[in-house]
Design goal:
With about 130 residues, the chain is mostly beta strands. The protein contains no helices and ten strands. This is THD domain-containing protein.
Amino acid sequence: MYPLCFPEVNGTYLVPLSQEADEHASYDQQNGTIVVKERGLYYIFSQVPFRYNDGTSNKTQFLYRIRNDGEELLLENSVYPCGANPRGCMQSFVGGTFLLDSGDRLCLRVSDHQCLDDRRKVEFGVQRI
């Protein structure tokens, strides 16, 4: 199992990150989010490796923006088991460009933290464009 996943929230698990953002954002280890320092257009991306042990259900990643008034789902991607390799690793990739404000927080959640492939690195980043 992937180490130190934050507790379940609305059926999803926040993935703790050790990734770095560019100079316009910073990583907050205390709550596992990336904090935007400066308003602007940003490219947000993540790549999540999922293991398929049972080969029966899809696995999903969610990228959220957190503000004082709540959370907003920005991006979502699901991967499905492959019949040819039901015990392999599937990579879920998602990315997009968003206008973010100073103080916005970004977090990555997954539908099933027990299926994160701990042999591979979770990638999550933000770059100002």
